[in-house]
Amino acid sequence: KQPILEVKHLQKHFDLGSGKTLKAVDNLNFSIDRGETFGLVGESGCGKSTAGRTIIRLYEATNGEVLFNGENVHKLRGRKMQEFRRQMQMVFQDPYASLNPRMTVGNIIAEGLDIHGIISGRQRKERVSELLDAVGLNEEHASRFPHEFSGGQRQRIGIARALAIEPQFIIADEPISALDVSVQAQVVNLFKKLQKERGLTYLFIAHDLAMVKHISDRIGVMYLGKLVEVTTAEELYANPLHPYTQSLLSAIPIPDPEIERTRERIILEGEIPSPLNPPSGCPFRTRCPKAMPECAAAMPEFKEVKPGHFTACHLY
Ligand code: SF4
Ligand code: MG
């Protein structure tokens, strides 16, 4: 069966002038099956948002391919491009900045319907009510403005907006990072519920692994513009291979104080290097507790070391 999304050797480089190139996304390879949630995780600046924006074609790719239902997104024109714009939607990180403060919630949600000329009049109103209900709000909210809502409610509005034109695929770029911890789980549960009801596929971007494990089927870990590990969520937690993934996992607190007291934390030394001037060889070597001389000499290849489990590290 064909994956809904295939990312092949995707690169997004930014030319910063005076001979400087920022390799924000460098040779990404992964695919997402229909109905699956793929978590994309890494520290801020690792290129995960740029990857999302290049996949949905807010940015043109420098190199490589993004295949959506088998078609190269970056080659689509005209009606096919319009159709793609309907099928893939984005939910943004900041629910305060991403909603137009001068538009009513109803008009925000219906904007996509209006742009694509899908429905009008009473149908439009019914559709907005149905969407508000689906995200845990109600029809009275349609005439209000974004500032009247809490962060969690605003993110629900952002989700309703993304759902309005019935996409198949949603890219959620750190949709819970700006929210209080107490509402994060509620929003994650809403994403899960909507996926079940509507058969959605998600690319779920996050900066840590704590929440992502509750929603993802598979997870990709990024570091300095590259994927360093991809496998199922279960396998990643049980058997992380890449030293960077191991350090991210060890940073998640465990609720059981007995385990928490005895386990070893992997504390990474130093800062994440500038993506403008990445280390030679393995990009993680300047912070890797297991670095060996050969790590400086050659870039480890991203390869399948166990069935369905990919990593880029000279240890394997
Ligand atoms: Fe660490 Fe070397 Fe593996 Fe890179 S290749 S993660 S430096 S052991
Ligand atoms: Mg980001």
Automatic annotation (TrEMBL):
Signal peptide annotation: none
CDD domains linked: ABC_NikE_OppD_transporters
Keywords: ATP-binding, Nucleotide-binding, Transport
Domain ABC transporter intervals: 5-249
Entry annotated with the keyword Endoplasmic reticulum: no
Entry-linked Pfam families: ABC_tran, oligo_HPY
GO MF entries: ATP binding
Superkingdom as given in the UniProt entry: Bacteria
InterPro entries registered for this protein in UniProt: AAA+_ATPase, ABC_transp_ATP-bind, ABC_transporter-like_ATP-bd, ABC_transporter-like_CS, Oligopep_ABC_C, P-loop_NTPase
Family to which the UniProt record says this protein belongs: Belongs to the ABC transporter superfamily.
Protein name from the UniProt record: Oligopeptide/dipeptide ABC transporter ATP-binding protein
Native species: Paenibacillus filicis
The organism's taxonomic lineage, starting at the top: Bacteria, Bacillati, Bacillota, Bacilli, Bacillales
